[in-house]
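Q: Protein A?
A:
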Amino acid sequence: MTAVPRTRLWRDQCGAVFAEFAIMLPMIVLVVFGSIDFLYAFYQWNAAAKAVEVGARIAAVSDPVAPGLNQLSSQAVLNGARPGTPMPGFTVTCRTGSCACVGACPGLLENSFNEVAMHRIVYGRGRSACGQAGPTYTAGMCDVLPSITPDHVVIVYKQSGLGYAGRPGGPLPTIELSLENMQFQFFFLNSLLGAHIAMPAVRATITAEDLCSGVGSSICGS
C-alpha cells in the first residue's frame, strides 16, 4: 500500500466548497431569520403606536378608568372654588387595578379602579375578550395588536386648563395612554438565541370629551 505524499494532501481541495458552506450556513440562517424577525418587530412597533391612538380615542369618550373623576368639577365647588373659575390642578394615574391621584382630587378614592372601563379600552366596546367579531366601531386596542392586555396599559388623566369648576359634564383633562412592559414577539430569535427585547415606550395624548359611555351610567357627570 503506497502512502499518499503529504504535499498532495495539503493541496487536495476536494470537498472545500462543502466545508465552506457548512461554516457559512449558520450565519446565513441567522441573517435570514433575523431579518424576518426584525421586520415583524417593526410591524409590532407600528401596530402598538396605532393601538394607543385607538385606546386614547375610546378613553376620551368613555367612562374614566378612575371612578369619581367626573365629579371633580362639582367637588371643587364644594371645597370652596367659585363656579366658573379654573379647575384646580390634578394628575390621576391608573395602571393594573389601581389609580393614584396627585393634586386636587377631592372625592376620588385612592386605589379605586373601573375594570369595565379598562376592558372597554383594551378589548373594545361591548366586548369582554380580544378577537370577538363585530363592526369596526367596536374595535379595541388588542384588535390592532393582539398581545396587548390590560396589564400593559397606563392611563394618565391630567388637568389641561380647559373646563371650569362646577362644569356639569365634569373636567376636561388631557388623557395620556401608554404601553409598558411590552416585549417584541419573535418567530425565531426567541428559540435560537433566547432573545427577549423590550418594546420602546409608545404613547398617545388626546383631550377628553364626554368621559361618559352613555346616558344613565353611574359614573357619568350629572
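Q: Protein B?
A:
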Amino acid sequence: MSSTFVAYLIASTILAVTPGPGVIYIVTRTLSRGRQAGLASVAGIALGNLANATAASVGLAALLAASATAFAVMKLAGAAYLVFLGIRALRSKPIPAASLVPARAGMRLFADGFLVALLNPKTALFFAALLPQFITADASPLGQGLVLACVFVSIAACTDTLYVFAAAALGPTFAQTSASRSVGRYVTAAAFFGLGLYAAMAGRRTTH
C-alpha cells in the first residue's frame, strides 16, 4: 500500500468522522424518526456523494488528458480551496440541529438525502479539490479517481452509520450535546489545513 493511499485513507477518515452539517442532518432525522429513517438518509447521501465524486473524477481525467499543466493548476487551486475550507470551518459557528429539515418517511427519506448531496455544488467542488491531491501519473487518472471516490464515500457511509446508531441509542441526550459540534469544527479545520499542506509539499517534490 503506497504512502499516498495511506495518507488519503487517514485524511478521508478524519474528514468523514468529524461532525458537520451532513452528520447533524442525519442525526436529526434519526432522533425525529428513528434508526431506519437515519439509515435511509445515510444511503441517500452516500449515493449522492458518489454521483458527485464520479462526475469530478471524469472531469479531472479529461482535464489531465487535455493538458498536464491545466491539471497542475487545478491541483493547486484545489489545495487553496481546501485551505479556504479550513479557514471557514474555524470561523463558523456550530450548527443547531433544530435548523435542519424535519424527516419524512420511507423512500422519500432516501430521495431527500440523495438530492441534498447531489444538488449541493459545494460537494462536487470538494471532490474536485480533494481527489487531484492523491492522483499520481503512474496509473489511469480516471481509474484512480473512481477508486478514491468509492473509498471516501464508503468511509463516510460507515461513520455516518455509526452516528445513526449512537443517536438512536442516546436519544434526546445526543441532540442536546453541542460539544461534539464545537470540537468537530477545529478537527475539520486541522484536516483541511493538513490536506492543503500535503498538496503544497507534493507539488514542490514534483518540480525537482
